[in-house]
Amino acid sequence: MRKWLLSGIVGALGLGMAFLPWAAVAAPAASSAAAGSGGQGLEISPPVIELTADPGQTITTQIRVRNVTQGELIAKGKTDDFGAGTDEGGQPKLLLDETGATRYSLKFWVPSVPDLDLAPQELKTATIKIVVPANAEPGGHYGVVRFTAVPPNLNGTGVALSASVGTLVLLKVSGAVTDNLNLVELSTGLRTSPGTFVKQNFFEHGPVDLVVRLRNDGSVHEDPRGSIVVTNMLGRTVSTVPVNDKGGNVLPDSIRRFEQRLDQKQLFGRYTAKLAIKYADGKAISGTLSFWVVPWKLLLLMLLGLVVLFYLLRLGLRRYNAHIIAQAKRR
């Protein structure tokens, strides 16, 4: 049951990370607004909150929760920590088994999350208080405030059978913060299927997939933005591909992977890709790589055609010369 609950929660958070104005959760169908047993469903907004505070400061934020069903619900609130997932794609990982505070913990700074009694289609706002300790370590601290839908008649018994919706809270505590983002990889390749990427620098044709992997060795989350400028053999720009244009964060002590695509199909020759990224008020990351696009099958076919044409022309020339010689002898 615990694994079932965890999968439902992670699915809900994945929708939150899409940066939509409202995040709906479903179990098991993510496209539906219904969640949990008996069709209980909640919507939550915003999916992500970014805050800044000083050590010793108490701050508040607000989260809106809506009952999208036709029955009464109790939205039971709770706070957990989260960290970076293992797939480098930016999917958050709930730290449900953490019993003590970690370096980046936030949940112990939230005294309580109120339960909300919601009538059908009712929207309510929950005020969340965050009490930052005076000795809080400067840098990033991360938690998720989540709500579980429970019918009033199942309150206290049905929580484990309902999925949750959650708002990710990224809190930056001021002080001696370290901003240190590094380029791990800049590569080209082909995505052959979901979850499968084959690195290569020689292609028969476009499009070409470009991968940027960044490691955060600092103490706070970073929002890197930039582009990859692709130029041809003559130095002319053929495309400028944005990197992280949707604004994904890289959490401390983690690597995040950004995938882009050079959509042009008609490519030929040697190309150079130059990466330029800015983060943390002007810090820069750069990288360069080269790749080739050669339609060798088409070139081979053209070469074969030229060989055949040359053979036919030579055969025709021989026959023509033989005809001229034969006419000369008859004279």
Fold and architecture overview:
The protein folds into three domains: 2-173, Immunoglobulins (Immunoglobulin-like); 181-293, Immunoglobulins (Immunoglobulin-like), CATH 2.60.40.10; 300-331. The protein is elongated and about 115 Å long. Strands 3, 5, 6, 7, 9 and 10 form a six-stranded mixed beta sheet that branches. Strands 13-19-18-15-16 form a five-stranded mixed beta sheet, with no helix packed on it. A hairpin with a 3-residue loop joins β18 and β19. Helices cover 15% and strands 44% of the residues. It contains two helices and 19 strands. The chain has 331 residues and is α+β, with helices and mostly antiparallel strands. It starts with a helix and ends with a helix. 31% of the residues are buried. Residues 1-39 have low confidence and may be disordered.
- Tally of contiguous helical segments: 2
Roughly what is the average pLDDT, rounded to an integer?
84
Shape: elongated
Just name the CATH architecture of the largest domain.
Answer: Sandwich
Terminus-to-terminus distance: 105 Å
H and E string: HEEEEEEEEEEEEEEEEEEEH
Helix content range of the residues, please?
10-25%
Low-confidence stretches: 1-39
Assembly classification: single chain
Count of spatially separate domains: 3
How many distinct beta strands? 19
The major beta sheet can be summarized as: 6 strands, mixed
**What's the alpha carbon Rg, rounded to whole Å?**
30 Å
